[in-house]
Amino acid sequence: MKLERELQYAQTLLKSAVHEGNVAVDATAGNGHDTLFLAQLVGDDGFVYAFDVQKQAVDATLHRLLDHALEHRALVLNDGHENVAKYVNKPVAGAIFNLGYLPGSDHEISTRPNTTIQALESLLKLLKVGGIIVLVIYHGHEGGKEERDEVIRFVSELPQKYIHVLRYEFLNQKNDPPFVIALEKVKEYPPKS
Ligand code: SAM
Q1: Quick one: which atom of ligand 1 is closest to the CA of 102?
Q2: pTM
Q3: Which among 25, 31, 52 is the best mutation to test ligand 1's pocket, defined by most ligand atoms within 8 Å of the CB?
Q4: What average pLDDT does this structure show over 72-86?
Q5: Where are the beta strands (DSSP E) in the chain?
Q6: What proportion of the chain, given as a percentage, has pLDDT over 90?
Q7: What angle do CA 7, 8, 14 make, to 5 degrees?
Q8: Distance between CA 119 and CA 129 in Å, rounded?
Q9: Euclidean distance between CA atoms 172 and 9, whole angstroms
């Protein structure tokens, strides 16, 4: 067995949780690679909600879906993932975040700690038991370390009885390689009182 690279491992995790007929979320659509991957997993009976604050990313994602004739399986929203609860009201089987900026575009338009954590809070409520949220954390850029640290602080405090939190990381690579954090809901959370 070979150790999977970060992006490959993120997809392996999504594949384990997202099946035909499910709802999935791409929280950072970018060039649409993950939106397409999720659209392939959910099949014609499922649905993907994809978010990006950049029009350029929304257009790129729509084009990628159109190229594969899968545009009917996704809604690509030009809005921030912190607003996910405005659009999604069904249980979510899997969600993915690629934190950082879109390569080749404005580096200023990067994900931010507050909005990332707001989106995580909403998605944790929407996530079904057995569902997974995957974050690929790029932290080499300006503001990246602050976001990394705040996200780690937030996920580390989630109660283990309800949410399992995994970190997958190569420890001997240079130049701030990305790493993966995965959250698996194992019990209804927040608990019903
Ligand atoms: N997954 C993408 C792909 O396959 O190409 C790469 C995503 S890129 C690292 C991060 C993206 O997050 C950028 O396209 C950026 O515009 C977007 N972004 C930044 N803040 C956001 C927010 N609050 N909500 C949604 N997307 C956001």
Answers
A1: 8
A2: 0.97
A3: 52
A4: 98
A5: 23-26, 47-51, 74-77, 92-99, 127-137, 163-168, 179-185
A6: 90
A7: 90
A8: 18
A9: 17
